[in-house]
Amino acid sequence: MIIREVYAKTILSKSKVADYTINPYIGCEHGCTYCYARFMKRFTGHREQWSTFVDVKTNAATLLNHEIKKKHNGRVWMSGVCDPYQPIEKRYQITRKCLEILSKQNWPVTIQTKSPLVLRDLDLLMKFKEIEAGVTITTADQNIRKIFEPNSPTICERIDTLEKLHSSGLKTYVMIAPLLPGAEELATLLSDKVDRVLIDRMNYHYADWVYKKHGLEYAMTDKFFREKKEELARALERKDMPYQILF
């Protein structure tokens, strides 16, 4: 893994998902084959393969402390094009430093990650007046996870993370996106661990070669997404779990 320390020009960016987004890092160690954030290479100039590099925005907290005073209070999404709790966060703690500032300024936050490292900051998250912690889980099938998300935390680790966050009193959600084979089994695993479920299909084509290599072309079709979202929705309704389908 190529790690570089860089100085960002700005950190609190406008977002279509929330009011703002903060990305403490460029790149991600998880190596998810479908990752939409690969498009970032067009703007960053990286020639290395995606998931082989991470740029650390070492001045992120300093920038945020300055920028937050000039912006209107709004919800911040952590993060849009990187996992804020990927392994390098354990060393640099950029995400935690940014969250400390957001907490002091009483800004609402939505976290999205695949990592149990978020539990390290549970003490800090509990200080927020308004915060939501989410974990992305795309399938209940560990073999499918290994195909599409080779370096990411296991499904069990992510389920356990949600359970601990939820039992601590935090508002939690799960992002089932992209919808992969085996996702229909998640309803049972997530019962009593999340406040809501978000579901979306594969809306990009970076992982087309992975589907073809493993004989999973059927899971790229509109028919697959239509049937799986209906099956998953019925399972969630049986568990009385609120959900939103984004396609």
Can you offer a commentary on this structure?
- There is one protein chain.
- With 247 residues, this protein is α/β, with parallel strands linked by helices.
- It has 2 domains: 1-135, no CATH class; 137-247, Aldolase class I (TIM Barrel).
- It has 10 helices and 11 strands.
- It has helices at residues 41-44, 60-67, 89-92, 94-104, 122-125, 142-148, 155-167, 186-190, 208-213, 222-238, and strands at residues 2-6, 13-14, 20-21, 25-26, 53-57, 76-78, 109-113, 131-136, 171-176, 196-199, 243-245.
- The strands form 2 sheets. Strands 2-3-6-7-8-9-10-11 form an 8-stranded mixed sheet, covered by helices on one side.
- Helix 2 (60-67) packs parallel to helix 4 (94-104).
- The two termini are 35 Å apart.
Quick structural summary:
The protein has 247 residues and is of the alpha/beta class. 32% of the residues lie in helices and 17% in strands.
